[in-house]
Amino acid sequence: MSTLSALLYERIYESDGEIIFFDGRWYTSRDFRKDIALVQQIFIKFGVKKGDRIALAQGNSYAFVAAYLGILLYGAVVVPVNPDVPGPELHKVLKRSHVVGALVGETLAPMLSSEVAEAQSRRESLTLQDERLSGEAPSAGYTLVFVSFGEDSNGGEGSGQVDLRQRMISLPEDSGAILLFTSGTTGTPKGVLLTHGQVMATSKNVATSHGLTDQDVCYGFLPLFHINAQVVGLLSTLTTGGRMILEPKFSASRFWVTVRNHPITWISAVPTVIAILIKSQGNAPVNHHVRFVRSASAPLPSLHARRFEARFGIPIVESYGMTEAASQICVNPVPPAKRKIGSAGIPFGVELKVVGEDDEVLGKGEIGEVVIRGESIITAYASGDDTGKSFRHGWFHTGDIGYVDSDGYLFLTGRSKEMINRAGQKISPREVEEVIGEHIGVKAVAVIGLPDDMYGERVVAYVVPEYRWKRQETLLSDELRTLCVESISAYKVPAEFHVVDEIPLGPTGKIQRNRLKQQVLTSGGVK
Predict the structure, then answer these.
(1) How many CB atoms lie within 10 A of CB 187?
(2) Coil, strand, or helix at residue 429?
(3) Domain boundary among 147, 171, 195
(4) Domain boundary residue among 151, 171, 191?
(5) Is residue 456 part of a domain?
(6) Higher model confidence: residue 139 or residue 28?
(7) How would you class 115 by CB atoms within 10 Å of its CB: exposed for 0-12, middle for 13-18, buried for 19 or more?
(8) Is residue 385 part of a domain?
(9) Which pTM was predicted?
(10) CB 328 within 8 A of CB 348
């Protein structure tokens, strides 16, 4: 039996009480029991089987959490998708995921028209939480649309209620739980299929390293379609009996008001959020309950950490994680234990070492590639497109560069990969280049990440046009921006477009992004 599903079942079906606060009200175990049943009845109707993959494209909300838990407890695999993803990118994700169906919001459902036959029997809406607690006024609820991609919709799992107990007995730890895609420098997203056991291992590591109990209240506003918010925020809270204050997204104006109005004990954040709060006018309430703010998804500038702690008096706990490890790999101890500002922390629940070019283990303070292994870490990509370089001799090679000091704390110094890290969101340069390259006026293009005070890195595109004259440069940049906005997610759209005469190329004609970046940083630009 999957430990993860057993703990989730216990929280929802064998206890009562508040679980998620969203949109001005608490949602309880009773709410989840009713709405999970609605979700799973849809799966029965459309013949969804254990192990089938279901896409979930919904913003932060009670509806996301109810649907997410409904998928996991059914024994299916949840494939979280950015609800704001453009149509072309959405179709690519669905195709690569091999999903049998998708749960989406009403506004996103029409975008699936090219993937699904128009027959209404293959689409159905369901309204979650259409009533408030007994005695309260009716609620509008949240409408999700289930779109079936399967060939039959005859209830292949049978009819009637789902026997969750029986499902869990036949659901081993190596059953698939979550499928996400992580971009690499090849431009082809790599599928990361995390099992129940791997997700549970990280949830347990997070809970133990942070000392989480059923008395803790997490403040969550990071996007739930990312692994960080799912495992670190949501699942570690649910499996330890805690509660969550969930926001649709981060809001600087609401942040401290929310902290003042709720007994929040810890906050899951990213460096961009911390940078915004430092510049904001708000201040921490005097009688708050916050033990720490956890920073993840990207390196936090040491200056920002010190300024935040000095101004608000709340400790920053820096961490390091990856999708391939179901999120957390290293984390700094929670106060009063020793923290090191600027460090990613100490490996927790995983083995970690730093190796040289020949995979030899390096000593303390020596810089090399970070490699990891453990029960929370995948051993292969689900998409089968790995070159063999990532998994060697039982270790996963992260592509991150750093060193371990004499106390065992990891310090990251850079990335061997060319992937761009914008506020914790990983962006493949080639994916953006392929979109820009579709324009008839583009001869060559290179996309790199440049330092940014707010987001860590910003996406910048350098374009060699087919023809060049001054008036055309502005027009081309405007057209390329429009093309990107229509084709890829907003965070991947370059902040700047530069029209140049040439882009550095290697002997075989391969774009040398690192060389381009070095030229820009040292000389201030490319002609």
Answers:
(1) 13
(2) helix
(3) 171
(4) 171
(5) yes
(6) 28
(7) middle
(8) no
(9) 0.85
(10) yes
* pLDDT single digits (tens) 299-329: 888 989 999 999 999 999 999 999 999 999 9
| Predicted local confidence at residue 22, as pLDDT | 97
Q: How many helices (H) and strands (E) does the chain have?
A: 14, 26
In whole angstroms, give the CA distance from residue 466 to residue 215. 62
Q: How far apart are CA 188 and CA 430, in angstroms?
A: 8
Quote the CA–CA distance of 63 and 60 in Å, as a whole number. Answer: 8
Phi and psi angles of residue 34, each rounded to the nearest 5 degrees, phi first = -65, -45
Residue 482 sits in a domain of what CATH number?
Answer: 3.30.300.30
Is the dihedral angle over the CA atoms 143, 181, 266, 15 positive or is it negative? positive
Name the domain count of the chain: 2
Please name the amino acid found at residue 273.
Answer: V
Q: What is the mean pLDDT of residues 14-25?
A: 95
Length reported for the chain = 527
Residue in 338, 318, 313, 337 with CA at minimum distance from that of residue 328: 318
Residue 88 CA to residue 108 CA, distance in Å, equals 13
DSSP-derived pairing of the beta strands 77-80 and 53-57 = parallel
Domain residue limits at 471? 420-523
- Give the ranges where 121-179 is alpha helix by DSSP (H): 164-169
Rounded to 5 degrees, φ, ψ at 495 are: -75, -25
Provide Rg for the chain, Cα atoms.
23
Tokens of 62: 């009670």
DSSP calls for 64-111: HHHHHHHHHHHT-EEEE--TT--HHHHHHHHHHHT-SEEEEETTTGGG
Q: What is the mean pLDDT of the chain?
A: 88
CA 132, distance to chain mean position in Å, is: 31
